[in-house]
Amino acid sequence: MFNSKYVLLSVLIILILFTGCDENPFDPNNWNTTSKDGFELKWRVSGSDLEVELEGPSSGWVAVGFGGSYLMHDANIIIGYVSGSSAHIRDDFGIDSNTHESDSNLQGGEQNVSDKSGSESSGNTEIRFTTPLDSGDLWDVALTEGQSYNIVFICGEDGADDFTSDYKTITSTSITL
């Protein structure tokens, strides 16, 4: 049996610890969220970076594109898949509305994604990553907190654990950072 004084003391200590923090990691209000057609995007600005969680309706690859003019066209696309216990995530650029290419394969481009992780569950893939708001990369869209951007969600067929197979779903919306 437990002593109610110890439970109350534990709760008070936890409250005091988190009251002194700038950001409570248990507060769901720290993340912005949007959903569309089976995709869920969570994001938050952290200093000069954008932290992102994307879940999509595929056991293959999933992707999100920021700031494109039409679907993938001109978008900064982050694409990823999970194979076994490893997440593979890449920084791409939307060549046209239906085609993307790794920034590393484009002149002057580089990979600007960090803190990469992911998981698969119940036929969905989730990728998590951090990207600079403004990487300085010619192929990345510079993002500004408080501004609205077109967003494209894309996913491959179930089991498509690669960066190059055709997509099965593509949809778009907009968000404000």
CATH evolutionary superfamily: Cellobiose dehydrogenase, cytochrome domain
Mean pLDDT: 87
- This entry's quaternary arrangement is single chain
Q: Tally the beta strands.
A: 11
Indicate the radius of gyration in whole angstroms.
19 Å
CATH class membership: Mainly Beta
Q: Reading side by side through the largest sheet, how are the strands ordered? A: 7-6-5-4-10-11
Order of helices and strands: HEEEEEEEEEEE
* Beta strand %: over 45%
Q: What is the molecular shape?
A: globular
CATH topology category name: Immunoglobulin-like
**Low-confidence runs (pLDDT<50, min 5 residues)?**
6-26
Outline the biggest β-sheet: 6 strands, antiparallel
Based on the coordinates given, report the CATH architecture: Sandwich
Calculate the terminal CA-CA distance, rounded to whole Å.
Answer: 48 Å
> Structural class of the helix and strand makeup?
mainly beta
Structure report:
By secondary structure, this protein is mainly β. The chain has one domain: Cellobiose dehydrogenase, cytochrome domain (Immunoglobulin-like), CATH 2.60.40.1210. The protein has 1 helix and 11 strands, in the order H-E-E-E-E-E-E-E-E-E-E-E. It has one helix spanning 4-19; strands at 32-36, 39-46, 49-56, 62-66, 76-83, 86-96, 99-102, 114-121, 124-132, 148-156, 167-176. A 6-stranded antiparallel beta sheet has the order 7-6-5-4-10-11, with no helix packed on it. A 5-stranded antiparallel beta sheet has the order 1-2-3-9-8, with no helix packed on it. The longest helix is centred in the first third of the chain and has 16 residues, at 4-19. It is globular, with a radius of gyration of 19 Å. The chain starts with a helix and ends with a strand. Mean pLDDT is 87; it is low at 6-26.
